[in-house]
Design brief:
Layout (H helix, E strand, L loop, with lengths): L1 H14 L17 H31 L1 H11 L4 H40 L4 H11 L6 H16 L4 H30 L3 H15 L1 H20 L4 H7 L7 H10 L3 H12 L4 H21 L5 H17 L8 H9 L10 E4 L4 H16 L4 E4 L19 E6 L5 H14 L4 E6 L6 H7 L7 E3 L2 H12 L16 H10 L9 H14 L3 E7 L3 E8 L3 H6 L1 E3 L5 H7 L3 E3 L12 H6 L3 E7 L8 E7 L7 H25 L9 H8 L1
Length: 663
């Protein structure tokens, strides 16, 4: 056909004269309806087709879910328990994610609808519902939903105010919900980290487009669960999961290695909000020290790095000294007034071998101090053969030797033998905190170490030491001793003519002033004779004692002030050997006593001025000086009364001194 057409055209072209111009007209080819439809539909066919395939696949998967479940179990190798647990975990996480997405979408669409209605945008309810539905397409759907109310605001408002309010409303809610609430709630509800959700959205969108964006979170959840239950794919759980990758003790040790003790302290305080301090040291502090000890034995923790880690742990313990947290047991103990009777500094914690042992000793010492047991911490060099001879163990009740190393038995046995020779009366406790013993094996293993006790944890050591501290409660009461020169002292007392006399305002004024100054409930002016103490003035005494106005000298604490002729302070009566088993303060609930002798200058004490409380206290040097000053004022009042009885004027110079000299 082409050849015939060419043959017909060639002669016509040849008949034209040379150079004759030809008219050419270019016309657009008419576009058919089919081509128009193809140009519009083809770009939409790919996503629509993908969506259709996904929908069909999901429908058939739901119809055949039991068969697919059994096939998946068969592919897992027959471990029914682990596979079932993994599938239940996936189902629970995805269900929680979908529920959370519905909640988030509703909390996004409702404010949008209400805000648009308040602004005045037409059909506000429709745009709120549309925002809720389109938000099921994460990150992209909200922006598509925002185009409709924005376009409508431009169309219906001749000004710019409605547009500005609409854009502002959408931006504020979008920023709060899409960039903060969604990652936080989705990560918490699915067990996938926030960063993993964002990265997964980018990955699955690049791979499958909008459908990948819609399915990104459920697919990521499945991968994270697979990584949790399949050992060889654990890296998926590490990368995608929301659970901490490092254990608390590993994180703490890592922060010490990095020299960031402050972050270690912040992490510890967060844990202490849920656990007592002793439990924290057992579950986090000691395991972290054991990791450091293991690296030290492998010679990976040496030199400046080792010193950095030790200083970090010691600083951490010091910073946690005032932390209360969840220590309910300790608060109850303080409220009840637990009967710990060791006074002074009865416990010495000596590091077993290294500076890491010293850090562990600081943990135990801190807990003992919080329970009212004074403790010193010494380095390992303190029990070396050269230094143990100069070791001060006076008034020490117990020596504790903590060890973190796994092979410390021989060394602890040798240290116990040295300490036995140095302090035969002190009790010895070895704390093997290497994680290889439990409490059931401790009692039998202590005999082979020549120690009185063996502890395998901080809590165990704390219980054993507290049990030993309460044993002296059975010791006999120490009666008030009779001082030298008792006859002369009694002569001065009787010459005052104050025994068995009524109370006087001049002395009552002093007791009221002192009780108010020290904020104590009881203050006494006590005169001690042969067999009793007589209260010349008293503030705050119980009714029965206020009527009798005397008590036995043998059981009195004021008798000890008279015997010592000096200020006596007992911060906690139950922790003092002399008074822990004294029935009189015990029955009255007395926990604190501070008394100063009432005496002539350079003479024996005839009584005391004392303050008493039912809770332990501590007084400073200025407080004690003021107490003695007030006791001297009591004696001046006694001198004035003696001068008046002798017929001398109290205002006459040196009248009190002359009256005393006359006696």
């Amino acid at each position: 056909m082409l050849r015939e057409l060419g043959a017909q055209l060639e002669p016509a072209a040849q008949d034209l004269p040379a150079g004759t111009p030809m008219t050419v007209r270019v016309e657009a080819q008419p576009t058919s309806t089919l081509k128009i439809l193809q140009s519009i539909a083809l770009p939409l066919l790919a996503p629509v087709g993908t969506a259709g395939i996904v929908i069909v696949l999901v429908v058939f998967m739901l119809l055949e879910r039991e068969d697919l479940r059994d096939r998946l179990i068969g592919l897992s190798g027959g471990d029914l328990q682990q596979t079932t647990q993994a599938m239940n975990d996936v189902a629970r996480r995805v269900s929680r994610f979908l529920l959370m997405r519905l909640v988030v979408n509703a909390t996004y669409g409702v404010p949008i609808g209400i805000g648009l209605w308040l602004i005045g945008v037409p059909n506000a309810l429709l745009w709120g519902v549309l925002a809720t539905v389109l938000r099921f397409v994460p990150y992209v759907g909200p922006f598509v939903a925002a185009l409709f109310p924005i376009a409508l605001a431009v169309a219906v408002d001749p000004g710019w105010s409605m547009l500005a309010w609409t854009v502002g409303l959408i931006l504020i809610i979008e920023l709060l919900s899409n960039c903060v609430v969604e990652p936080w709630l989705y990560g918490a509800s699915t067990g996938v980290s926030t960063v993993a959700i964002l990265i997964a959205a980018v990955f699955w969108t690049a791979l499958w487009g909008p459908i990948g964006l819609l399915l990104s979170t459920p697919l990521t959840v499945c991968l994270a669960v697979v990584g949790r239950y399949v050992p060889h794919l654990r890296f998926l759980d590490v990368m995608l999961g929301s659970d901490p990758v490092l254990e608390p003790q590993e994180r703490l040790y890592q922060r010490m290695l990095a020299g960031d003790a402050q972050e270690g302290e912040d992490m510890s305080e967060a844990i202490l909000e849920r656990r007592p301090l002793a439990t924290f040291y057992d579950e986090v502090g000691l395991p972290a020290l054991r990791l450091a000890e293991a690296n030290r034995r492998r010679r990976r923790l040496v030199g400046e790095l080792r010193a950095l880690v030790i200083d970090g742990f010691v600083r951490l313990v010091a910073d946690l000294a005032d932390h209360e947290g969840a220590d309910v047991e300790e608060k109850d103990r303080a409220a009840r007034g637990a009967p710990v009777v060791w006074s002074g500094t009865p416990v010495v914690c000596i590091a077993g071998r290294t500076g890491l042992d010293r850090a562990a000793a600081c943990m135990l010492a801190q807990l003992l101090e919080r329970r009212g047991i004074g403790t010193r911490v010494l380095p390992a060099d303190a029990i070396s053969p050269e230094a143990i001879g100069s070791l001060d163990l006076e008034d020490v009740e117990l020596v504790c030797l903590p060890y973190l190393g796994g092979s410390a038995v021989a060394q602890s046995r040798q240290a116990c033998r040295r300490l036995r020779r140095r302090a035969p009366d002190a009790k010895l406790m070895v704390a093997l905190w290497n994680g290889q013993l439990d409490e059931r094996k401790c009692d039998g293993a202590a005999d082979g170490l020549a120690a009185d006790g063996l502890a395998c944890s901080v809590s165990d050591a704390l219980r054993r030491i507290e049990a030993l501290a309460t044993l002296p409660l059975s010791c006999p009461m120490m009666a008030a001793p009779i001082p030298a020169g008792e006859d002369g002292r009694l002569a001065v007392l009787h010459q005052t003519r104050l025994l068995d006399t009524p109370t006087e305002e001049r002395f009552q004024r002093i007791t009221r002033k002192l009780a108010k100054t020290f904020d104590m409930p009881v203050c006494l002016v006590s005169l001690v004779d042969e067999e009793r103490q007589f209260w010349k003035a008293a503030t705050g005494l119980p009714e029965d004692l206020a009527r009798s106005r005397h008590a036995s000298r043998e059981m009195s604490i004021c008798g000890h002030v008279v015997a010592a002729n000096d200020v006596l302070v007992i911060e906690d009566v139950l922790k003092d050997r002399r008074f822990a088993n004294n029935p009189w303060p015990k029955e009255r609930g007395i926990r604190f006593y501070a008394g100063a002798p009432v005496r002539p200058e350079g003479g024996p004490a005839i009584g005391s001025l004392c303050v008493i409380d039912m809770v332990p206290h501590r007084l400073g040097e200025r407080d004690l000086a003021f107490l003695q000053l007030m006791a001297d004022e009591v004696w001046l009042e006694i001198q004035r009364g003696m001068a008046a009885d002798a017929g001398l004027s109290p205002h006459e110079p040196h009248a009190p001194a002359r009256a005393v000299a006359a006696f």
